[in-house]
Amino acid sequence: LQIETGLRRALERDELFMVYQPKVDLTSRAVVGAEALLRWRSTELGDVSPVEFVPVAEETGLVVPIGEWVLRAVCKQLRVWRDQGLPPIRVGVNLSARQFRDQRLAETIKGILSDTGVKPELLDLELTESMLVENADEAVEALWSLKNIGITLSIDDFGTGYSSLSYLKRFPIDALKIDRSFVMDIPSSEDDMAITQAIIRMASSLGLQLIAEGVETEPQVEFLRANGCQLGQGYLFSKPIEKEGMADLLKHGW
Ligand code: G
Ligand code: G
Ligand code: MN
Ligand code: NA
């Protein structure tokens, strides 16, 4: 209950902020994008992890106004970076199941893009498999309403859910993010390497972009590149960083 009460006030008290984790070209190491991640610095509770508060936000429905705040914060930031003359990058925003089911989501996003003057192709939404397979017909319709705005759509934590190939083909998805659990034990786990190779082959045959999550070592980079995965994110390159650090990286590189 403490989290719920605090979270209700977090927006008006300005206790929420975004950090950004770079997405990197595994060959050139250039920053090609970022994932935006929500942070909460509570007056009473201190730093609270999204692992703790996102589920509470989801259960209470607070995730809808908070999620809208996140989308607006990210688009405002993209506009600031553009006004500072920084090279444009696409930023991924994590969407919760409740937000995805919200009928007004597409209209909300259109409004935010138009208010901030951000090009839709700079916004990517990260969804999970479980959000899509629950009610596939409705999901396809919801995905199209988002796709039609001109934004891109990614499946987060790919490989941990249960989406079949036939589903993947039906969904207007642009990219798959290979779950960190498969990347973690490369190159020691033969099974995880086989799964990762299978995901890479599947993605390329379906014409989907690929990004590996949780890249922490050079051997992982080598394996991913050798098998045709060009993009990655993870602690090897950078932890999630505050907006100033991200701007610096866009301006000067590593
Ligand atoms: O940033 P960190 O790795 O601690 O995130 C932990 C979890 O919280 C991840 O599963 C991540 O997807 C989720 N998360 C982080 N930011 C957001 C956000 O803005 N919205 C939603 N719905 N989930 C988020
Ligand atoms: O569920 P999602 O993929 O959105 O989770 C993002 C979370 O993963 C963030 O909390 C981020 O801090 C964490 N993360 C990002 N890169 C790495 C990494 O290389 N190793 C580990 N252990 N966690 C990572
Ligand atoms: Mn994510
Ligand atoms: Na992820």
Distance between the termini: 42 Å
Report Rg. 18 Å
How many structural domains in the coordinates? 1
How does the helix and strand content classify structurally?
A: alpha/beta
Strand content: 15-25%
Number of strands: 10
Going by CATH, the homologous superfamily would be: EAL domain
The name of the CATH architecture is Alpha-Beta Barrel
- The neighbouring-strand order within the major sheet is 1-2-4-5-6-7-8-9
Q: State the CATH class.
A: Alpha Beta
Overall mean pLDDT score?
96
Function: Putative oxygen sensor; modulates the activity of FixJ, a transcriptional activator of nitrogen fixation fixK gene. FixL probably acts as a kinase that phosphorylates FixJ.
Protein name: Sensor protein FixL
GO molecular function: ATP binding; phosphorelay sensor kinase activity
Keywords: ATP-binding, Kinase, Nucleotide-binding, Phosphoprotein, Transferase
Which short descriptors sum up this protein?
alpha/beta, binds guanosine-5'-monophosphate, 254 residues, binds sodium ion, binds manganese (II) ion, TIM Barrel, globular, 47% helix, 22% strand, 12 helices, 10 strands, eight-stranded mixed β-barrel
Walk me through the structure.
GO terms for molecular function: ATP binding; phosphorelay sensor kinase activity. This is Sensor protein FixL. With 254 residues, the protein is α/β, with parallel strands linked by helices. It has one domain (19-34, 64-252): TIM Barrel, CATH 3.20.20.450. Helix content is 47%, strand content 22%. It has 12 helices and 10 strands. It has helices at residues 2-10, 50-60, 63-83, 97-101, 105-116, 129-133, 136-147, 165-170, 180-183, 190-205, 218-226, 243-252; strands at residues 16-25, 31-42, 46-48, 90-94, 123-128, 152-158, 175-178, 209-212, 231-232, 241-242. An 8-stranded mixed beta barrel has the order 1-2-4-5-6-7-8-9, surrounded by 6 helices. α3 packs parallel to α5. The protein is globular and about 50 Å long. The protein starts with a helix and ends with a helix. The model has no long low-confidence stretch (mean pLDDT 96).
